[in-house]
Amino acid sequence: MADEHERIEAVFEELVELVLRGEAPDLEGLFARHPELSAAERERLAVRARIFAGASDAERLPFERLGDFQLLRRLGAGGMGVVYLARQESLRRLTALKLMRPELAGDATAARRFEREARAVAQLQHPGIVGVYAAGEEQGVRFLALEYLEGQSLDELLRAEGPRLEPTRVVRWGRELAEALSSAHAQGVVHRDVKPSNVRIGLDGRARLLDFGLAQLADASALSASGSFRGTPYYASPEQVDPRGKTIDARTDVYSLGATLYQCLTGQPPFEGASSAEVFHGILTREPLRPRVLAPAISRDLETVLLKALEKDPARRYASAEAFARDLAALLEMRPIAARPPGSFTRVVKWTRRNRGTSAAAGVALVLGLAFLGLLIGQRMQARRRFEAELARAAATRATDESEEGLRAVERALALRPEDGRALALRAQLVRDAAKTHARESLDRARADS
Prior knowledge:
Layout: H1 2-20, H2 27-33, H3 39-57, E1 65-66, E2 69-77, E3 81-88, E4 93-100, H4 108-122, E5 132-138, E6 141-147, E7 151-153, H5 154-161, H6 167-186, E8 189-190, E9 199-202, E10 207-209, E11 216-217, H7 238-241, H8 250-266, H9 276-285, H10 291-294, H11 300-309, H12 321-332, H13 344-354, H14 356-396, H15 403-416, H16 421-449
Antiparallel strand pairs: 1-2, 2-3, 3-4, 4-6, 5-6, 7-9, 8-11, 9-10
Helix pairs in contact: 1-3, 6-8, 6-12, 8-11, 11-12, 13-14, 14-15, 15-16
């Protein structure tokens, strides 16, 4: 049952994302992208989709008041809740009042997630994190009263001004978000769902982080006993997609923030696909296109910082959000960054991962080339040994006055290395020795005849 609930939740959130982007909720297309869903799971999703569509069609309020809060208008919705602009009567302030969806009433897992968000945000105090004023339950409805921040979500800004945004703005927002994440991590909270729709850009131009519904708290690390994926596919880290034997920690948020900035700067997420499965495959097995290929105006240092944050191996990423923030600040201040482009060996490994078919053929060619090279080197070494042996044999004949035999040996050496200086010099000496020997023998015969 836990696996079933996780699957339904993940697919329902994907449906919500489509609706919030202004697209029609195409259930058939959604089901085609998720063939793993059973018939019963599809039916449950269809029911929830109808309820969601009904709630989305109307701007009407579900009720005028909820305890101390007067509802004013609907602001937006997500997979877990609907957010309304509300006025807290006792303190006479505006709040973003998040109400759990009515179809999730009685859902224990959803209730735990709602409570987890309240606990996570309540313990965080940072200007880059939207704060919580109150949490509770009224009239059987769970609610969170959050700080109301006028402005736009980052995904709304991308739709309005995108697909690419001006790099300096993006880097500044990235630094602010990395600093906010660093503060959360220092207090034992990992967000686990950093993405454009969970970033709010205020009227003051500052970026703030919201929606800690998937947050991992230090005292409650086992959030999904089944190990099922939770989050948004495009911005998920490799360890979220395949958590076997891996740790979800601060570096997970570093990856997701890197993916968010990558989309803002290049106009597309690091990996795309027709289904979640295709996106997951890319996250696990491929390397993202270098940002400058998609947006040549991006500086080399900015590209290096993005790719450092998007390393598949957490050990190769920024070790913390604070380190990520420092390099983003260095970019803004035109100082040297700490990150370095990958070395030659790392680039070869990444190229192999990105071009598996080509690299397989190249691997075969490399093996054959190395085998031929080994054969060639072996032949040369054998020829060298023969040359040295013939040269040594020729030199030894000088001591025994066997110049003719020496000349035959040096000729065999020169056949192997015709231009060798030692062999040529030895041959000249042996020729002189042979001439002297011949002259001496002729003189001896002449004397004998007389």
